[in-house]
Specification:
This protein is an alpha+beta fold. It has a domain of about 120 residues: 2-Layer Sandwich (Alpha-Beta Plaits). The chain contains 6 helices and 8 strands. α1 packs antiparallel against α2.
Length: about 260
């Protein structure tokens, strides 16, 4: 990607207790405010995946924790898309972290220590395979409040909305698509609006499941599922409503790795 997940992605989830980023689950709360998501995509070199996972677990995560990281999710491509693609996701209230004179790792490890960790980390990544996005959550278009544990899989949609049709897209998701998602047996649904690092009018959607079997039977984007939960012909009607609004849509699947994540306690 510079593919957001293959051209993305998304994407996103710390779970534990009651909170995670992608699919931010919380105990019942008032309307959530919009939050920033920092999504970092890297592609691993062929044949180094297991070695990198061990390095991340034994060296990188302890260093990140020492630097004060409280929450960083780790996702990887699953079954489709560019093999060896990994994503780290952080959720912030604001962008003030970028204003600090030293990044967190340099402050905690010293310049030499941070440089050494960075060099060791980068040796696992393919050249030109790194990209980052800053996106804002859109709670009004999302459905995650019922999620009290993190899902295992997410279908990630990279949506490009036609110029001048953002309001129509938001109305479609809120009034036509989200009601179907809620009836489809999906674990949850999340919408992020890309602000920096992507195209103007780009959105990231995430539909959460716990297995490929559930996903196959209940993916709300499929016409057959829409017809089943909203009545015969609903799928065709919804597809027609997006004509002229959605200029392009790419979809991929990512898997959450809690063992390689830093999760809130």
């Amino acid at each position: 990607m510079k593919k957001l997940l293959t051209t993305l992605t998304v994407f996103v989830l710390a779970l534990v207790a009651s909170e995670f980023a992608f699919g931010q689950a919380t105990t019942a709360q008032p309307a959530a405010k919009r939050q920033w998501y920092h999504i970092q995509e890297n592609v691993l070199k062929p044949g180094v995946a297991n070695e990198y996972y061990e390095f991340r677990a034994k060296e990188r995560i302890p260093a990140l924790k020492k630097a004060g990281y409280k929450h960083q999710e780790f996702w990887l491509s699953a079954a489709v898309g560019t093999g060896g693609t990994i994503y780290t996701v952080e959720m912030w209230d604001d962008l003030s972290a970028f204003d600090q004179p030293q990044n967190r790792l340099t402050k905690a490890l010293g310049e030499e220590g941070a440089r050494a960790l960075g060099k060791k980390t980068s040796q696992y990544f393919a050249e030109g395979g790194s990209h980052a996005w800053l996106a804002l959550s859109d709670p009004e278009l999302s459905w995650t409040e019922q999620m009290t544990t993190a899902p295992k899989l997410a279908i990630v949609g990279r949506v490009k909305v036609a110029r001048g049709r953002r309001a129509d897209f938001r109305n479609y998701i809120k009034n036509d698509y989200l009601p179907i998602v809620k009836k489809s047996v999906a674990r949850g649904y999340q919408v992020l609006s890309v602000v920096y690092g992507g195209d103007v009018g780009e959105y990231i959607t995430l539909t959460f499941f716990d297995s490929f079997t559930e996903m196959e039977k209940n993916d709300p984007s499929q016409t057959s599922v829409q017809n089943r939960v909203a009545g015969e012909g609903a799928g065709q009607k919804n597809t027609q409503k997006t004509v002229g609004i959605i200029a392009n849509l790419e979809r991929t699947i990512i898997r959450f790795r809690p063992d390689l994540s830093i999760l809130p306690k």
